[in-house]
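Quick one: structure for this chain?
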Amino acid sequence: MEFKHFVAHNNTMTCSADEHAQPFNTQVRGVNLGGWMVLEPWITPSLFYQFLGGGINTTAFDMYTFCEVLGPEEANKQLRRHWERWVTEDLIAELAQSGAVNSLRLPVGDFLYQPYGPYPGCVDGALDFIDELLDWAYSHGVSVLIDIHTMKESQNGFDNSGQSMGFAWTSALSSDFAGLTTFEHWPIRTAEWIGNFDPRNASYTAIKYENIEHALKVIETVVDTYKGHPAVKGIEPVNEPWQYTPLDTLKRFYWEGYLIVKRKAPYWKYVMHDSFRFTPDTWGGFMDGCPDRVLDTHIYQAWHDPDTRIAFFSDACRQKSMIATMEREFGPVIVGEWSLATDNCAMWLNGKTKWRNMLGRFVLQLLTHAFPGSGFNDNLPGFPRLPCKYTPCPESYLGHEQPGVPLDPFKPIQGPYGTGMSGPSFALCPGTRDWLKESSGNPLTGRDGIRAPPNAPKHLDDTDDVMRHLAYKKLDAFAGIGHGFCEWNTIGFVLCRRQYIGTTRLTAACLLFSILSDFWNFRSEDPQWSYLTALERGWIPRGDLHNDPNIQSACAREDKGEFKCVLKKGQIDSAVLDAVGYVLNVQNLTDTERAQRVLNMTGDELTEEGGKVLSDYFQEYRHMGATCDFGGIAMLIEENRTLSDDDIYLTDDEYFGYVIRERPAVWKLGLGGVSLGLVGALIGFVLAMRYSRKFNEKVRRSTFFKPITQSQNRLVRSSLHLGRLPNINEHVPLNDEKWNESYGGAIQS
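Got it. Here's what it folds into:
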C-alpha cells in the first residue's frame, strides 16, 4: 500500500521508502488535561461528593454511571458547569507562559464521536468545548495530541476507561450492620473491550471484533473532525489497554488505526501505549520503518513500598537505560505519564495498581508502570502503605451551586464502602505525606521520614527540597539520555529520540508530545499530581528545560554508579537465602561451586558472602532496571562509606538543605536541667557565703551545714570564708575581731 511519503506492508505490519517528510526537530513539552472530558473521581472529587451516602442505584463511580445515575438532563447540566470551569483559557495561557509547556495531551471519550449507552444527551455540547480549547491552544502557540482515553466495555477495567468493569454490590452480605452499603471492584476487575475475559485463567476466550470496529470508526471520526485544525499534531488510539490484552490482536488494531490516520492526516504523529509491557521482546521491530509512530510508557513511583529519598532518586535515574534500550529496539519512546508522588495517599487514587515485570519471587523492575484508574470511596487492598495526611478538603472549583458542595464538617466518612477506605471525613481529605528533614542522630538515613507522622511540622518539612531533586532527576532520566534526542518533558513530559539503524536509515521522525497524565495532571487537588502546583512551588523549573545544567547533571552520581547495594543489618538467614537463590537462578548460576557454597552458609558468613552476591548482581543489572531491595533486605549506600550501627536507611546530604539535630530524650533533658540547677545553687551558695555576713553567720550556726562548717579542708574553708577552725578548748565569739580577721573585710553586713 502506497502512502504519500512511504510504503506500508500489511502482511508484516512494517513500512519502507520513508521520505522523512516532516522531521520533528522542535523540543516538545506537554501536560495532560485529565479529568475534563473523561471524568475520574480522584482528579475532580467535588463533582462526586453528591454521591457520598448513596445506595445501589444512586451512586456514580465513573463517566458511564455519572450519566446513567443522574440522567441525561441533570448530568449534562453539571458537566457543562464542569467543562466551563475545569479548563479555561487563562489556564492554557498560564501553561504556555511558563516557558516549559508547548503541547497538551487531551484525553477524550470514544463516546463523544460514536455515542452509545447512557451518553446520548449526557455529553451534548462537549465537542463545542473541545473546538474552543483547540482555538485557545493555537492562539497561545501550543500543540494538541488527541488521546482516545476510553473504549466501549473498557480496555482495562478502571474508571479512566469510562466504565469500571467487574463490579458487585455486596450489601446483602453486610445485613448485620444496619444501613451499611458495600461493594467490591478491584479484586474482581475485568475488561471486555477486546473480548470475553476469563478471570480464572487471566486470558480471553473470544475476541469482540464489533468493539474493535467501533474503535476504528472512532479513530476515523476523530481524524475527519480535526485533520484541518492547525493545533492538532497527532492521535493516541487507546489509552492503557491492560497487560492481559491479546498482543497480536492489539498490534493489528494499532496497525489498522495507523493506516486510517496516514490516509487522511499524513503528517500526524501516532502514539501507541505499551500495554504495560515495556520490553524489547514485545515491541522490538513492530511497525519498523513506519514514520511518525511512537511508543508510550507510563512510569510511577507512587506504588513503591515506603523507602528513603535516595532510593526514589536512584530509581528515577535508573530508567534511562531501559528507555534507551527500547529506543534502540523499537524507535521513539515517550514517557507519557509520570508524577512526583512517592505514595498513593491522594483521595480515591488507589484504583491504580502497579505492574512490574516479574522474575520469580522478586521484582526485576525494568520500569514501574501503573494503571491510572481511581476508585470512588474505595482503596486498593493493602494501600496506602503508611498513614496519610489529612487536611481541609479544597474549595470546589464548581462553586456552592454544585450538589454535595460544601462538605459537611460534622460527618465522618460516608458510604458506600468498597474493599478499602478512602474519602472525606469531617471535611478533611487524605493527601500525600510530607517528607521530613533527617536527624543527625541517625545520619542521613531516611528512617525518620518512614516512621514520622504524615504531617511534618513546618520547621521540619523537607517536601519542597525532595520534590525538586526528584523532579530534576526524572527530567534528566526521561529526556537526558545521550545519542541525539528531541525531548518533550515536564511532568508528563514526553521524550523522543531520533533512531538510526546501522549508519544511514532514520526509522522514524522524532516526535514530541506530552503526557502529564498523572502528572497527570495539569491541575489536581493533590500537589504531587498537579503540574501547576509543582510549578508554583518551584519543584519544576520554568523556561528552557533542555539547557538547564541542573537537569543535565541531576543523575550524574547515579550514572557513575557511586552507590553500592548492601544488606541491612540483622537480616534472618532464610530471607538472605531466598534473595541469593533468586539472583543465582536469574543468572543461571545455581549449579556453580560458589553458588552451592553460599547457599549452604549461615550466620555472619552468609551475611558477608550473600551480600556480595546481591551487590554484584545489582551492579551488573542496574542499567537494566534492577533495584536494590530484594524483598526489603537490602539498601543503597555511597561507595567507600562504612555502614554504622545507626544506619538503617541512607540518603545524601547534598539532596536537601541542611540536617537537623536529633532532639534528646526527655530523661536527658530532665537530668540536664537538674544538673544545671545544682551547679547554679552551689555557685549561689559560695557567693552568699563570701559576700553576705548575715548568711555566713546563719550557716555557721546551722546544725544542717555543720559537716561543712566544721570541715578541716583548707580549700573549703577558704572558698566559703569560714576562717580558722578554733581549738576544742578555745571559745571564739562569731563577731570576735580575731575570728573575723581572716575575712580581710570581705564580709559585709
